[in-house]
Write a structure and sequence with these properties.
- It contains eight helices and twelve strands.
- By secondary structure, the chain is α/β, with parallel strands linked by helices.
- Strands 8-7-6-9-10-11-12 form a seven-stranded parallel beta sheet. A five-stranded parallel beta sheet has the order 2-1-3-4-5, with helices on one face.
- The longest helix has 19 residues.
- 37% of the residues are buried.
- Bound molecules: NADPH dihydro-nicotinamide-adenine-dinucleotide phosphate and oxalic acid.
């Protein structure tokens, strides 16, 4: 029984140390596999071309929080996404940063600064800004509470939705059926959804039309959520006043793409989070142990729902 490690090489020494201390075998790269029948888990971002090469495979572990980049699993193979407080905290920090950037008109002031313009605009308190978080999962909830602590008027939307979340301070959570009401109260819309067949293209013309005029978009989900022509149209008509994007379609965004040159848009290159090697390896070890004990696999993905 062995884990096949297919993540970035700079993480390998940490994984090697943690797995070997736990008495587990790890192959680094497909070329290192002496016998495919030994491979029981694969940890990867980019999966092997042919999962069928590994007859005793029990689980594929995404080294990130998302799994949309992975193919359908062969029958009986579990799919696990890395659960790591570090990932969640990093994305939370990015969302707080992006929210403050739009709330305090930074794209406008950066543009004015480039022109040498000293021109103040009215400042709104955070209490007057309604933030809507699409996707109230592990990361959405964390971001919601941090933004609430900064006095923003925060609500979320999830698939199951309903009521308020269980944490102190409690944030109202709309259900899918109440999406119009949720969007109508989102001056700043934050997308922290997984990319699934249901959520692909969700950031499109219909959604933008349902937001208050001049709303801002903060997007750290996946490029596939965002309809780029609809974004351009919404910016050009003033429906959206600005956007901060960590994910785009395509990635990498080509150097000559219009989005790079739009002063209302700030882009980071999919760096809201990067998985810490120690957290990733510990998650993989927890998966291996759960499979061995027959207990619930941590980060187990519902392959029907796609997240
Ligand atoms: P979770 O699985 O914990 O949460 C997902 C949330 O989305 C849940 O609240 C779920 O609802 C909701 N949801 C799913 N489908 C729908 C739908 N059709 N309509 C409304 N709500 C829906 O995920 P995480 O919080 O851990 O991560 C979310 C995503 O963030 C990842 O999938 C990934 O795409 C992205 N991400 C991006 C990173 C970056 O660097 N840019 C880093 C890490 C993650 P319910 O609660 O009812 O199930
Ligand atoms: C992730 C990511 O899913 O980095 O963890 O986007």
């Amino acid at each position: 029984m062995a884990l096949l490690f297919l993540s970035t090489p700079n993480r390998a020494p940490v994984w090697r140390a943690i797995l070997s201390e736990a008495g587990e075998t790890m192959f680094e790269g497909e070329e290192a596999v002496t016998d495919p029948a030994l491979v029981t888990e694969i940890a990867c971002w980019v999966p092997p071309k042919d999962l069928g090469r590994y007859p005793n495979l029990r689980a594929v572990i995404s080294v990130g929080a998302g799994v949309d980049h992975l193919p359908p699993m062969p029958p009986g193979v579990a799919l696990s996404r890395t659960l790591a407080p570090g990932i969640e905290a990093m994305v939370r920090d990015w969302v707080v940063m992006a929210t403050l950037l739009l709330h305090r008109d930074l794209p406008l002031y950066i543009d004015q600064a480039r022109q040498g313009l000293w021109r103040p605009h009215p400042v709104q308190p955070a209490t007057a800004r309604r933030v809507g978080i699409l996707g109230m999962g592990r990361i959405g909830r964390l971001a919601a509470h941090s933004l609430q602590a900064l006095d923003f008027d925060v609500a979320g939307l999830s698939r199951s939705g309903g009521g308020r979340d269980a944490e102190p301070g409690s944030v109202p959570v709309f259900a899918e059926g109440d999406v119009e009401a949720f969007l109508a109260r989102s001056d700043l819309l934050v997308c922290l959804l997984p990319l699934t067949s249901e959520t692909r293209g969700v950031l499109g013309a219909g959604t933008f039309a349902a937001l208050p005029a001049g709303a801002g978009l903060i997007h750290a989900g996946r490029g596939g959520h965002l309809d780029m022509p609809a974004l351009r149209e919404a910016l050009d008509t003033g429906r959206l006043s600005g956007a901060v994007l960590d994910v785009t379609d395509p990635e990498p965004l080509p150097a000559d793409h219009w989005l790079w040159r739009d002063p209302r848009v700030i882009i980071t290159p999919h760096v809201a989070a990067q998985t810490d090697a120690t957290e990733g390896a510990r998650h993989a070890l927890a998966v291996i142990r759960a499979l061995r004990l027959g207990t619930t696999v941590p980060g187990l993905v519902d392959q029907q729902k796609g997240y």
